[in-house]
Amino acid sequence: MRTQHYLHSLFSPRSIAIIGASERAQSVGAVILGNLLAGGYKGRIFPVNPRHAAVLGQPCWPSIEEVGSRVDLAIIATPARSIPEIMAQCGRAGVRNAIIVATGFSETGNSGAVLERKVREIARTGNVRILGPNCIGIMRPDQKLNAAYTRIPAQAGELALVSQSGAMCSAVLDWAASNQIGFSSLISLGRSTDVDFGEILDYLIYDDKTRHILIYVEQIRNARQFMSALRSAARVKPVILLKGGRHPVDGEGSPTADAVFDAAIRRAGVVRVQNVDQLFHAAKSLSSGFRPRGRQLAILTNGGGPGVMAADRAGDLGIPLARLASDTTEKLDRLLPRGWSHGGMIDIGGDATPERYRDALLAVAGDPNVHSTLVLMAPHAMAEPLAVAEAIAEAAGKTTQTICCCWMGGGQVAAARQLLENARLPVFPTPDTAIELFHNIAKYYRNQKLLVQTPGPAGKTTAPRPGNPRLLIETLLAERRSVLSVMESKAVLSAFGIAVSQTVVAHTPTEAIFIAQQLGFPVAMKIDSPDLAQKSEAGGVRLNIASTESVLNAYQDIVGAVRQRQPEARINGVSIEPHLARANAREIMVGTFRDPLFGPVITFGAGGADNDLFSDRALALPPLNAFLARDLIESTRIGQALGQAGNTPALERTLIEKVLIAISELVCELPWVRELEINPLIVDENGAIAADARIVIDHAHSAEHGDFGHLAICPYPSHLLQEWQIDGTSVFVRPVRPEDAPLEQAFVTSMSEESRFFRFMDSIRELPPTLLARFTQIDYGREMALLATINDDGKERLVGSARYALSPDGEAVEFALAVADDWQKCGLGRRLMAALIDCARQAGYRTMVGDVLSSNAKMLRLMESFGFSILPHPEDRSAKRIVKTLGG
Length: 888
Hints:
- Strand 5, helix 3 (83-93) and strand 6 (97-100) form a beta-alpha-beta unit.
- The chain starts with 7 loop residues before the first helix and ends with a strand.
- Among the domains are: 1-134, NAD(P)-binding Rossmann-like Domain (Rossmann fold, 3-Layer(aba) Sandwich), CATH 3.40.50.720; 143-287, 3-Layer(aba) Sandwich (Rossmann fold), CATH 3.40.50; 292-451, Rossmann fold, CATH 3.40.50.261; 718-885, Aminopeptidase (3-Layer(aba) Sandwich).
- It is 34% helix and 23% strand.
- It contains 27 helices and 37 strands.
- The strands form seven sheets. It has an eight-stranded mixed sheet, with helices on both faces.
C-alpha cells in the first residue's frame, strides 16, 4: 500500500487559479484559460486579475488571497518582475503548486538569476512547489487537463513526455497529432528551478496511465539525483531520451561532455535517440514487443539499391550483417535467382512473389547466425505490396526471430503498412529509418543489461589494503601537492593490485648510470616533472637504452630537450625503469578523469604506438564489475582487435578486465583522484603491467552521501554484509542483487497464506514480473533491501527480508518486513528491523513509515518495541499507519 505521491496535486489538481487571466487573444493567460475551458477540465477554475470582473465568461478574483477556497495549482501568467510578490501571496493563501510561464530569469544574466533565487526562496518559505520558470505548463489528457501555453491539444495515450524545452513540446505535439499518437502526460520543465527531472520521474514510475517515458533534456543540475531517478524509472518502464546541445557552442562546454552523458545514459538502461522521429518510432516499437536478440542483422530485399542503402547505414552504426550458415545458403540457392549475393544482404529479385518472400524469410529466420531480419519492399511494377505484407505477417507468426519491415513508397503501400502495423510488426518508409530503429532498440536491450549490474566499490573483500593507498594520498594532501611522481603513482596502483614496472628517479647523470646498471639493461628513461602530462611531446622520453654511455647521453638529451621546449616546466629528474619489450604485447591506455557533473569517468583505448592508429576511446561510469569492464573493452576498435592476428596470439581479456575493475575500485575509494592515466598498459599472454602512470589529486572533496558522494551511481553496499548466529545456525545478511529474483519468488511462494496477506495486504500467491524486478533491481541511493539467507542442503535459501524505499512524499522511507514461517519467534525479524533502521538513519532519512494490518498483532507489538507510533490509517480502517522519527 503506497501513499499518494507528493506531486499528485500538481499533476491532478482539483482546483486551478490562472493569475494574469486575460481576454487578449494572444496573451498567455487567455490561451491557458481557454485551453482549460475548451478541454473540459472538471475541477474548479479561478481566474485572477485585479483589472477584470470576469474573463471568458468566468468570474474573476482581484488576487489569489481573495479566492477564499483551497487552490492546488496556480498558473502564473504575468511578467517576471511581478512574480516575487505573487509567489508570496500564493504562500499566504496555502497554494501548494505553481507553474511559472514567464521568461526573464537566469537565462538573461545576473539580474535574472537574482530574481530567480528570490522567487525560489519565497516559494520555499511558503511551501509552494514550482514548475518552471520559462515553461509552457502541463497536459493530462485523460483528466481533460490542458494547462499549457500552446494551440495544439494532445490525445490521450500511454506516453509521458518530459521536456526542458517548451518549443520541443509544441513540435512533438504537432508531430504526434499528425501520427495519431497520444499522451498520458506532457510536462514542460523549463528552467526547473525547483521541481526537476528526478521528482518527475519518481512520479511517473507510479502513474498507472504511463507505459513509456519520453525525455528531452538539455542540461542536468544534479547528476546523482538524475541518475538515481532515471535508473529507478528504467527498471519499470522503457525510458527514451533525446538530448539537445550535444556539441559545444561558441567554445562553451567540454568536447567530452556528450560522450560522458552518453556513457551515463547507457548505464541507466535508457535508449538514446537523435531526433523526434526516432523518439516515437522507438516508443511504438517497444510497445509492440520488438526485441532484437542480438546485433547480427540480415536484410531481405527485392531491390539492390534499397538493400545497399540499408547495408551502408548499418555499417555507419556498427551493425554487423550476418554470415549465413551453409544450410541456410543451400535453402536460398533453391529459392532465389542465380547470382544472389550469398551474404547478409539478400536480394531476392525484383520479381519476387509473396511466396518467395515468405519462404526466404522462414529460411533466414531459422539461421542461428541471424538475430534479426529487415524485410524491404520496393514497389516495382511486378510487386504486390499488400500480398507480400500478408505473407510476411504469416511467416512472422511462425518464428520467434525479430522482424522489422520497410515498405518504400506512398499510396501504393499504405494498406500494406497498415496490415503490418496491425500484425505488430514495425514498418517504416525508408531503409535508413528502419536501420536506425533497429540500432536504437538493440542498444536499449543492451543497456538494460548494464542497468542490472550492481558492482561494489571494492572487489571481493572489504578488508584494508596492504599498501593503505588512502594514507599515501592523505600524506601528499598534507604536503599540499597535487601531481604525483611516476614512483608515487605506481605505488598507489600497486596498492590496488595492478602490476607496475619498477621505477627509480635519478637526479643527476651519475645517479642515472648506477640506477640503470642496478635495474639491468635495456632501460626506458622519462622526464619526471609535475608540469608535463605528455612527456613525449616535450621530448622527454627515450626507450630501449642498452648501455651506460647511452644512459649518460639520454639523461642530458632529455633534460636539454624539455628545457628548450618547455622552459617553465619544473624538473625533478629522470625516471628510469626496465624497458618492457614483449613479442606479443599490446599497448593499452586506461585512465580516469573527473567530469564536473557526473564525477569520475573511466576511459579505455589504444595506448603507446597504437594511440594514433586507434583514436577511439570508450567511457564508463564507476563502479565496474567484470560484465561492465568487458562491455567497455568491446566498445572500442582496439578492444575488438585483441583477438589473434597472424602469429600474434589472442589476448586474455580478463587481464584487462581486472585492471579496469582495480581502477574502478581506486576512484571509488579515493575521491581525491582527479586524473589518472596508465599509458601504456602492456598486456600479453603472461599478464598486464603498467609501464607508465600519472595521477593528479584534488584537495576538495565533498562528504555528501558518505564516502561515495563523488560518484553518480551508488555502488553495491558491500559494507553491510554480515553473518549472524541464530539458534546455532549461520544466517548471512546482505543487500539484495538483481540475480536474487528466484530467491525472492521462492520465499514468497513458500509463505503461508496468512504471512503473505500480512506482508502484501492482498491474496497474492507469487510476485508478478514487474514487482519482482522492483524488489530485486534497486537503487541503493534511495532504497535498501536486506536479505537473510541460510545454507539449506547446499542451496541458498531466503528466510527473511527487510526493505525500505523512498516515500512518495519525498521526506520519509516506507518499510516492509517479512520472515519465513519456520523462522519466526527466533529474533530474526527484530535483528533485521534493527539493521534496516540503522541503514535508514545512516542514509540521512528523518522518518520511517509503514502500514500494518490491525489484525497483525505480532508485527504491531514488534514495531511498538522499536518506538514506532501506532496511528489510525488515513485511508484504510483495517490497517494502522506506524511512524518512527529517526534520530541522529
